[in-house]
Amino acid sequence: MNTTTASFRHLLKNSGRPLFGTFIKSPSPQAIEILGDLGFDFVIVDAEHAPFDKGTIDHLLLAAKASGIAALVRVAEASASHILSPLDCGASGVIAPHIDSVAKAKALVAQSRYSEGRGFSNSPRAGGYGRKSIWQHVDQADDEVVVVGMIEDPSAVANIDDILSVEGLDAVFIGRGDMAVALNDRESGAPVVQDATNRVIHAAKRVGKTVLLLASTPQEAKSFHALGVGAFVISSDQGFLRTGAAEALSAFTNSTSAIIN
User: What are the HpcH/HpaI aldolase/citrate lyase domain coordinates in residue numbering (predicted)?
Assistant: First the structure.
């Protein structure tokens, strides 16, 4: 089911069903259009790990708007220089990495919400290119922008109750890959990471905040949803391309080999 940018924060907080999205790591508006057409709830434009400049992010956000799919931007850091432009260009919200303290969570919120200190402009896309009045834009943006902190460090898990208490932080994204590396958890099933993940999920559930994470399988998503996880990232545009291409190549190779034999 497609969701509009305006409704995504409400849906993230109140949906009775799990939400599904994927990472965008390629500068392809077509990928976003396809995902929107398929019915994904959201995409995450990965400006932390993918080589995106501001112009590319702007084009991807325009594609998301045209496709009726919510678009979050994972920024490289929780600073004005990384957060303001995506929000001005119409991102549904931002996801910031390594939010492991109350101070970092408050800084993320401050750069994302006008009521907390975000720099003002109603001239870009988010402000209707000046169509919205100052206070119309301010109030609407503060009501709609989604603010997500990534929990991917042992210190973040240790401070999770205090981090989740920060007003204006809507959700947390558990980065289990970073967590595994940080904890050097190389055991099958990553039991240390699993314990940390469960701790974050339970803490978020106590205060009614949404948890996002990347799910490897439908079965894993089902189990985590039962624990209280509200939104899942499924692979990435590059991951889908690799998987689909590999399956097609294997199928055609096996088929033609059978004919030859």
Answer: 20-228
CB atoms closer than 10 angstroms to residue 10: 13
**Residue 127 has which token pair?**
């402000």
CA-CA distance, 128 to 137, in Å (whole number)? 9
**pLDDT tens, residue by residue, 120-144:** 999 999 999 999 999 999 999 999 9
State how far the alpha carbon of 96 is from the alpha carbons of 72, 148, 223, 248, 249, in Å: 10, 7, 26, 36, 37
Q: How far apart are CA 7 and CA 242, in angstroms?
A: 32
| Other CB atoms within 10 A of residue 171 CB | 22
CB-based burial, 225-245: b 16+ in 10 Å, e otherwise:
beebbbbbbbebbbebeeeee
How much is the pTM?
0.94
Question: Closest Cα to residue 9, out of 214, 165, 169, 130?
Answer: 169
> How far apart (Å, rounded) are the C-alpha atoms in residues 188 and 193?
11
State the Cα–Cα distance between residues 49 and 27, nearest whole angstrom.
13
